[in-house]
Records
---
Amino acid sequence: TLPKCTLASLFLYVLSKQLASKLAMSQGFLLAAEQPSQRQEQQELHDIVRQEHHGYTRQQGGGPTLSVYGHKRKITLIPLVFLIYFEVAGGPYGAEKAVLAAGPLFTLLGFLVFPFAWGVPESLITAELAAAFPGNGGFVLWADHAFGPLAGFLLGMWKYLSIVINIAAYTALIADYLGGSGVAPAVAQPGGARTGAVIGMTLLLSFVNYAGVSIVGWGAVALGMVSLAPFVLMTAMAVPKVRPSRWASQVKGDKDWRLFFNTLFWNLNYWDCASTMAGEVERPEQTFPRALALAVVLIAGSYLLPLMAATGAIDAPPDAWVNGYLADAAGHHR
């Protein structure tokens, strides 16, 4: 049986489609009852409002693209790659429980196959629709255009709630890594230090977002370099110690496939979130496909290579792989 939350979402989705179709039918009857000149004037006004609402733009010549509000689009290829990277992954943090659930071999296969089996189709859809609807709002605009304003509102609200709950986990995960690595042991356990660290990180990231999209874009590039550097170093140091036979280590008891696939999905989801900044991307019809293609390769490599190095270089059993264990694994290579 489906969970209650899934049934509720399905019910609201069907309801929104029915209401949207009824609204469209009502609007059609009203237009049919009007004079031709009135229908033409209303259609022209309707097109103008939709263009302003969706942020559609037309690029003239080879100059920089402008948004509907007249400001220059600021996000270029490299910042967009790293913005997508942080929307989807942000590094191999949180991948440890896949090893705990199914062992190293299935984890490596999962992070090799899943970015391409799931990420490539979703990124292609995102690239196509972001180029067709190059305005801020992304998937909300798609739903609004396809099913009407009610569907767009519901999708936006559900996505907002999902992201708020999801992002709340990241600051706690960072605290786990800081505590497990020995940098700040006090934040590893519940208490004032951990609470203060979580609040501080939340305020810092909120301020960065408030500073503007240009700063966020290049800030993502800098943060991406910083977050990937330890894993690049760890992978390089681990290569001489890697023994492929360690990848065949088995978990005790039955494999937890539910935890395994949930971990893969949680770490490799949200490709469509990049579409919400399409109105700020320079030449989105060219930039989005390239950025998404580069992001797929970057994300797959950022998970696969550190996990291959860590699981192949140390003899830790799969049940040792809890959140933050990659920091412990890096300590074994010093």
---
Amino acid sequence: MCCVVNGMWQISGRWGRIDREDAIDDMLRYADSGLSTFDLADIYGPAEDLYGIFINRVRKERPPEYLEKVRGLTKWVPPPVKMTSDYVKEAINVSRKRMDVASLDMLQFHWWDYSNPGYLDALKHLTDLKEEGKIKTVALTNFDTERLQIILENGIPIVSNQVQHSIVDMRPQQKMAELCILSGVKLITYGTVMGGLLSEKFLDTNLSIPFAGPPLNTPSLQKYKRMVDAWGGWSQFQVLLQTLKKVADKHGVTIPTVAVRYILDQPAVAGSMVGVRLGLSEHINDSKKVFSLVLDEEDVNSIKEVSERGRDLLKVIGDCGDEYRRA
């Protein structure tokens, strides 16, 4: 797996129309540049279907060893109904068919309602499918520390948990990372560049003046603006962006590159998501610079100091994933 993961939430339909051919061409460009891991889900519109077309082009147009580097990490987000073996198997077969693979590289499981313990049944059936070779690795998305502990105590072999994690949202380091280090579970992070808020585009902007700054015109920008508000507000966020800009300039990179590197360097983190707007824009060079960027002690301390000025989001929102389960 590549530690910088191409996130495909942005092709789910709420960001506008995606041209299929342009999107596949872009997926090949990302993979050719070494960014060969894609994160998708059964609920991300045509994401799994696009991956299936992409992987077929890889099989036809690239050498066999190339295929070994490409990874498709998908998610299954079922309604909290009774999790029978047949129900789980059918859902996984749909993803396998859409992605045109015999075995899913990774299945990341999400569960909406902890008061319904069916998630344990689902994970046991997923583990059976892993034994049958239909899934290579079973993982989680947006589970909290308490439930991760229960799952591990039930002997379910989880490899990772995908959680929201950024310089603004350091919740995973407060409880989750400790359990992950003890158990060997890794964190894959999303929201790491906050939908683009952690970038030069929003530096020195004042959102209190209508139409003065860049529009918050995507679901991800709107979502992460709410995180900024919960953390400490826009003026404090500007101080963070100014700090990141100094670090970025020192290393000849951009703010998003620094933001991703900082989170990749946190305990238990194995991969960080950067959303891709396939066929519309690309950030291959910025993402590739993450691999070679080394933040020194001065950089880390300056970022940490501003990050810790904000509110404790564990107290404001709750543990990882709680933002999806609280009314």
---
Amino acid sequence: MDVSKFDIDAPRWDQSTFMGRLRHFFNITDPRTALLSDSELDQAKRLVGSCRAGSVPPGTTEEQLHYAKKLYDSAFHPDTGERMNLIGRMSFQVPGGMAITGFMLQFYRTVPAVVFWQWVNQSFNALVNYTNRNAASPITPKQIGVAYVTATTTALATAVGLNLYTKKAPPLVARWVPFAAVATANCVNIPMMRQQEILNGIAVVDENDNKLGYSRRAAVKGITQVVVSRITMAAPGMIVLPILMQRIEKYQFMQRIKFLHGPLQVMMVGVFLIYMVPAACSLFPQRCSMAVSHLEPGLRDSIRARFGEGVGYVYFNKGL
């Protein structure tokens, strides 16, 4: 193949199907990419830029271009092209999430431990949500602070409240408290961190990427899908793993190695997340669509006045 004509932005897999998106997200959420240096990532970005400009360096192979695009998609924001902070990248969800979730599930019995690990988790989530927002809608430091405090307070109140309420409940119910807190906080953290999109709308374009205006309804749809994806990402590990741990902790050999229960849960959460991070990201297309008829009346009428019935759908980046 003549790589000088290679379309590096063409989807490698069909993004209209779940399996196509799953292969795509398995590729870009590969935790090994989080180990690469900034210089390696910048080199990949330069190669992607060269390919877009039609000046691929001599000797470059198609596989090298695919790998460069993988690194670019994993580390650079799709709206701004800027390198994202390491902790906020989806490729860091497995190592970061497995450590935090594992210890949340292990240390759920005492209020101080619940408070500490929920605070750590919401700090992590706030950074991930900010990093993966739709960057076309700026957010001020004050709004970031309010979002962070609100989500963290919600998570702590839910976790501590349920922890106290379930003192006399079956042990398994108490083990599920961290998931209830995480799910509740996600419903607050993500919308709050991306409040500007809800208040002012996000940019919507036609199928040829021509900007058509800003839509609040599109923002609500995109953010709702992200909330569902994040809860789905956490659910298997935080619901199934407590059942497994409760059963295996009864064995004598597990009683003798209690000091390893925490690290064991961390590793088991990692196994869940390796599959659930790409699977959850794949639930909905990254390039989200909405029928023009479902937009706000003002924007809908504006589009129809300019294009008639020629534009049936608008598209936008829902974020991750």
---
Amino acid sequence: MEFEGSKKHKMEEAVMDERIYVALGREPAKNKSNLAWVLDNCQGCKICILLVHRPAQMIPVLGTKFDAATVDEELVRAYREKQKAKTDKILDEYLRICLRKGVQAEKLCVEMNSIEKGILQTISENRVRKFIMGAASDNHYSTKMEDLRSKKAIFVCQHASVTCHIRFICKGYLIHTREARMDEVRALSALLSDFQRLVSPHSDQESGVSKRNSEEEEEERASRTSSSRSASTFSYFGGSEASSSVSVLEEKSNHPSPPSLPCTGMGLGMITFLINSTKLWQRLAIQNHKHGQ
């Protein structure tokens, strides 16, 4: 009983410690309404504010902007460092807003040329379970708005990990929610456990079989070598057995090898895994059908 209670307590602590990641842009004035919604609706949760920083591709030189590839590396580095310092100040401003509301928050800056890909990378690397981002710019908002208007939001909604629960907001209003699809995750977990259970015992058997086969091949090779040497010895002394030994060896070497089967090279464990995986998916499909009825 004590063990179960301590386990439950640890699980509750893990849930309480789970962070909500919030993606905001470089213009605090346009993002304050979205941040205000987060602070009002996620009280008691730890917040991580994400800002994807895109390195400048056009570098200003003498009042004109040039492509970074055509500008001196030192100038490019100096300008990009200034832009990154500005990004850090923007994040600090967001943290101050959170602090005034009494909310614990931290900042995260990810450098990438694509904002949406930077978001996906953050979700994947940090195993994010709760994420909030904008659905569109404020000027696209309307009271009847129920779908995503931002290409970035649509891309993230379509490609983010299925275990991540994502809410899309615009001008301080919740527009769309993409639920985490835990049923698929559980199915994949069950499939993985079946894979480990099936492959582990067979891998040992296969390694033993391959070891025995290699030993038999070595013995056969040694036998052939000794026979060849004895045939040469008899031939040197003019013995009649030399010719018969050589002819037998030639017949063995010229004998055609049996044709290889289509599944040659596929281990027994892998074949068993494929069969059991098919059975597992069939069982899951039948269970889902029964629940649907």
